[in-house]
């Protein structure tokens, strides 16, 4: 169990527990009152639940069934009744849907084959050889799931080529920038915010 802003959140051994990158993201969310929000990879659901206090509706999608259950329980416990939780990979569960804001604390750690542990939790941090495997798959489909003037906020590490992400967003028609950053040990973790211009 963890606490944030006087709210309680259950954790699970096979679900990514909120850490420094989560709290950096929470402190820099840009939610508007009428937003229809999608969060990819909610884990415990803490970001979706905080977002739901401002947004009109939130959809939370996670590939990890334990995270789906954890998010559901925490949403119910914190009376966040405007959250829908779905299980699946990235945008698969929201085919054909468009959102005002998409949130994603990406799996950004470069991970070689010898470092894989093959459990449900791995999806939260395993970014493949260059740390970009999931980031690039996310960016491939991002634009198609945003309304006109839609926004994205995502967390990434300096270990997985932040300039490449900014360049890809700009090429897709976003005005994008690093809007928050924090140094941890051997990396810089950033929040990237983009708006379709």
TrEMBL record:
<keyword id="KW-0489">Methyltransferase</keyword>
<dbReference type="InterPro" id="IPR052190">
    <property type="entry name" value="Euk-Arch_PrmC-MTase"/>
</dbReference>
<dbReference type="GO" id="GO:0008757">
    <property type="term" value="F:S-adenosylmethionine-dependent methyltransferase activity"/>
</dbReference>
<dbReference type="GO" id="GO:0035657">
    <property type="term" value="C:eRF1 methyltransferase complex"/>
</dbReference>
<keyword id="KW-0808">Transferase</keyword>
<protein>
    <submittedName>
        <fullName>Methylase</fullName>
    </submittedName>
</protein>
<feature type="domain" description="Methyltransferase small">
    <location>
        <begin position="22"/>
        <end position="168"/>
    </location>
</feature>
<dbReference type="GO" id="GO:0032259">
    <property type="term" value="P:methylation"/>
</dbReference>
<dbReference type="InterPro" id="IPR029063">
    <property type="entry name" value="SAM-dependent_MTases_sf"/>
</dbReference>
<dbReference type="InterPro" id="IPR007848">
    <property type="entry name" value="Small_mtfrase_dom"/>
</dbReference>
<dbReference type="GO" id="GO:0008276">
    <property type="term" value="F:protein methyltransferase activity"/>
</dbReference>
<dbReference type="InterPro" id="IPR004557">
    <property type="entry name" value="PrmC-related"/>
</dbReference>
<dbReference type="Pfam" id="PF05175">
    <property type="entry name" value="MTS"/>
</dbReference>
<keyword id="KW-0949">S-adenosyl-L-methionine</keyword>
